[in-house]
Target: Pyrroline-5-carboxylate reductase
Amino acid sequence: MRIAMLGLGSMNGAILAGFLASGVARDHVVATSRSAASAQVRAEQHGITVLAEEDDAEANRRAVAEADVVFLGVKPHGIVALCEEIREAVKPEAVVVSVAAAVDLQMIQGALRADQPVIRSMPNTPLSVGIGVVGLVPGAHATEQQVAAVQGLLEACGAVHVIEEAQIDALTGISGSGPAYAFYLAEHMAAAGVELGLDPALAADLAAHTVHGAGRMLVENHDTGAADAAALRKAVCSPNGTTERAIGRLDEHGVAAAVVAAVKASAHRSAEMTAELNEQV
Model:
């Protein structure tokens, strides 16, 4: 399988690192980057061929010419133009995968050949450490085998879920934006520690490792069916103990409702962004 990575920003870079670590042959991967300097750095970092658009106006078209899978890793507003650029160069049977937020299948498909296999994806930033989440939305012309191949590549970076496009805004609200919710919690746990007299570095370390450990416990229990998040929370809350008091205070301040509102706000904004991008096409 030959792979082209158009753009090596945070998401495409994380995906690339994941499947190279899983054993994908480096000489089967070609990437592109805007600047020659960036291309050189990325080529040395990953041990792959990286073409610079700065030096070669045909870089993207050359990169996709022999590819079986093409990952589009540019900003959302640049996806349609990139698809139009590579439309005649990409093989008709190659599957094109967008990792850009808010760009729907209709926009991607409309800028490529009418029957080009396409998959829309929504990854999150923990892909960079191999434990991310990715939602995949196959287009009408993507075969089961192509979806399985892309899923296999991405499973090197985390959990992969094949969903319907109507579900992608909700997925964005939970897993796409979700890492920021965890960071926000850790940020304010550490701030509280400082107010209680801890050294800032110690408070930050305690918060980071606590969130990390709790996340690992949750995943392991979820995957085995041993316990869900609510059960794990209740197990920590001894009657009239410190954690029960803390959770009570969170409830008094409406934190549960705020979390639900935050997820819905992210999902609604995702839908708005898609509408805005469609208006620009």
